[in-house]
Amino acid sequence: MARAAVKLGVRDLAAIAKVSPATITRIEGGHPANATTLQVLATSLEKQGIRFSVDDQGRLGVALAKSHLEESDRHFVEDVIKQRHEQAIWTADVKRKYAERHPSKNEPSES
Predict the structure, then answer these.
(1) Residues 52, 108: Cα–Cα separation, whole Å
(2) Angstrom distance (rounded) from CA 93 to CA 20
(3) What is the DSSP string of 76-87?
(4) For the whole prediction, is pTM greater than 0.85?
């Protein structure tokens, strides 16, 4: 979401944050990441003009603090951010429901 808002490709953000493109792809795919990596990415995106916030319900907000985008580009970016946010909520809901239906698949296996 944030990367798209400032029109950065995966490789571009990876170079700025000094992480591998695969790391960014994994995180954007919903896989876990360590806190240090997330902080480095957030700081890198903030330097590009992104502002993050968390509301009182713990939901993440992403905003463009400064923009040189034309009006049509701004609307496009806003639509992409909204779609990705809705997709993230849907994905988390599906994962939660799956975990509720299949609790044994969430427990570590004994090997």
Answers:
(1) 34
(2) 29
(3) HHHHHHHHHHHH
(4) no
Token pair 């919903």 in the structure block, residue: 30
Q: Yes or no: say if 61 and 54 are a contact pair by the CB < 8 Å rule.
A: yes
CB atoms within 10 A of CB 40: 17
Q: What is the dihedral of CA 78, 84, 87, 91, to 10 degrees?
A: -150
User: Is the Cβ–Cβ distance between 77 and 69 less than 8 Å?
Assistant: yes
Q: Tokens 């400064």 — which residue?
A: 66
Model confidence over 7-60: pLDDT tens digits?
899 999 999 999 999 999 999 888 888 889 989 999 999 888 888 888 888 887
SS percent in the chain: helix, strand, coil, step 5: 60, 10, 30
Distance CA 13, CA 20 (A): 9
